[in-house]
């Protein structure tokens, strides 16, 4: 699975740009504010159907424009697929697969699978429960199309029920719909809980193995926390549904008083433990970051176990936030699948050359009229890889240039 090309029109700071990618490692280099993260956001949007930095898709439009487009050509399950996302300030996003408009976002989610790792994710363990739910949902929506449909409906029901509760003081008659919405949410919520429980079990097992490679003297584990009345999240859906119904009806008065939904999987959490103790409360900064690294790399492995091919790994300037040992650990584990790495520093390309044993590299420069002037001098240190069995080829040494975002594509020879 890999992205062959992306074309962006009026998306973020891109007026009209096209990018061609290598199936292996792509290193995207440039100063801050040049659009590196915007490029990864466009790639991720083709997988999740949302922008990871905002809930409002219209914020992805270039300033002063009313429409934006993302065109993607990629290969998945040995099939060529084209995807087009159309953004507008006045209407919902439109999705076209191979030229045919899709009725729902869930119909296109998971065609292309990605794992995004950005600096904000490093604090996933200590962030609020919503961040960890979003982490689980992003993976499950790509892996299980039915889950995406359940989640989409549940979120819609939750939004409507919240409005009913908020407006019930002025319009008490609205409360006549409370029971119908609660029953439907319990029915859908039972399916969501089962999906999350089974996924968390697999994820934690894989993450524990990854963590053991980094810190063999510590044990990573976790607990999936859902509605307190659910005694077994692995039980059949009918049993969970009944327990959810009992819980929400026992909290009816409290929900009306609080004017919000107090019961359901929208309150779920994934608690991570180190040697049986809360990682969020007692873990050091390094331990917390290692937990997140383990979760992200484990997520990538689960995609491979599911489909037999690695998802596209998007590393958004995250390596600069890690110490040298953790940088080396990540680079050692990206030996397969397509990887896109954004960075500002010049040390990453040398590390990639050493760890991946690249016999040669390609350089591409992308003209960006909207970029501020910046210079790159000797960006890649010329050198040879003495460990490779292939003829040694020095990396490119870039000359002083203005208004360019540098784009390196590395190929791997087994």
Summary, kept brief:
The chain contains 10 helices and 15 strands.
Distance between the termini: 18 Å
Count of β-strands: 15
Silhouette: globular
> What is the mean pLDDT?
83
Computed over alpha carbons, the radius of gyration is 23 Å
The quaternary structure here is: single chain
Low-pLDDT runs of 5+ residues are 356-406, 410-414
Report strand order across the widest sheet.
2-1-4-5-6-7
What percentage of the residues does DSSP assign to strands (E)? 15-25%
Q: Structural class of the secondary structure composition?
A: alpha+beta
Structure description:
This protein is of the alpha+beta class and 414 residues long. 37% of the residues lie in helices and 22% in strands. The protein is built from 10 helices and 15 strands. It has helices at 36-48, 129-143, 145-167, 178-214, 237-250, 252-258, 279-282, 285-307, 324-332, 348-356, and strands spanning 2-11, 14-20, 25-29, 67-76, 79-88, 94-97, 100-101, 114-117, 220-225, 269-274, 277-278, 312-316, 339-343, 361-367, 404-410. The strands form 3 sheets. A 6-stranded antiparallel beta sheet has the order 2-1-4-5-6-7, with helices on one face. Strand 10 and strand 11 (277-278) form a beta hairpin. The longest helix has 37 residues, at 178-214. Mean pLDDT is 83; it is low at 356-406 and 410-414.
